[in-house]
Amino acid sequence: MKNEATLQNLSDFDNKSLLIVDDDNPFRERLSRAMEKKGFEVLQAESVKNGIETVKMKKPGFAVVDLRLADGNGLEVVKEIQLLNSSSRIIMLTGYGNIPTAVAAIKQGAIDYLAKPADADDVEKALLADPAKKAAPPENPMSADRVKWEHIHRVFELCNRNVSETARRLKMHRRTLQRILSKRSPR
């Protein structure tokens, strides 16, 4: 209950528009419906280009932007939002969470950084959190196994999906890496 005191009410904001930029269509649709039920006026975009066009037409008060989009980096959308509406509250979402991208997102104007899969309650808490107070810890944080899996897959992607190069950089045996890559993500 103590964490609830750090949340502001959506009714306290004049601009209730929420831009969701994500190229994962089912996830974006689910999150949009859930956020509309919570009182936000939701706008959707599936690419950097569409996100920037939407920002120029309607300067959103809130935004949830995926870091990796098919046509570029979500930080470009964040820059545009900050340029046109510096009071906008922006959350970065990604399945490839790491410290450098979190720092870059915060420097560009994001107020928080959430790893996928994030549910609507986590997103709402992050958007409405009082910036003067410390954020509450997540309800369902990623397990240590999941963090390790995410890191290995991120390095694998950065090495252009080259198993030998990834194994060398992670200082692990190539066959061990292949076994890890062939398994599903842990919870």
Brief write-up:
The protein is built from 8 helices and 7 strands.
Describe the model.
The strands form two sheets. The chain has a five-stranded parallel β-sheet with strand order 2-1-3-6-7, with helices on both faces. Helices cover 45% and strands 16% of the residues. It is of the alpha/beta class. It starts with 16 loop residues before the first strand and ends in a 5-residue tail after the last helix. It is elongated and about 55 Å long. It folds into two domains: 3-128, Rossmann fold (3-Layer(aba) Sandwich); 144-182, Arc Repressor Mutant, subunit A.
Keywords:
alpha/beta, Rossmann fold, 45% helix, 187 residues, 16% strand, Arc Repressor Mutant, subunit A
Rg for CA atoms: 18 Å
- Fraction of residues in H or I helices: 40-55%
Judged by helices, strands and strand pairing, the structural class is alpha/beta
Q: What string gives the helices and strands in order?
A: EHEHEEEHEHEHHHH
Give the percentage of residues in beta strands.
Answer: 15-25%
**What is the count of DSSP helices, taking H or I runs of 4+ residues?**
8
Outline the biggest β-sheet. Answer: 5 strands, parallel
What do we call the CATH topology of the largest domain?
A: Rossmann fold
Write down the overall mean pLDDT.
Answer: 83
The CATH H-level superfamily of the largest domain is Response regulator
Arrangement of strands in the largest sheet: 2-1-3-6-7
State the CATH architecture of the largest domain: 3-Layer(aba) Sandwich
Q: Show unreliable segments.
A: 1-5
User: What is the overall silhouette?
Assistant: elongated
Total beta strands:
7
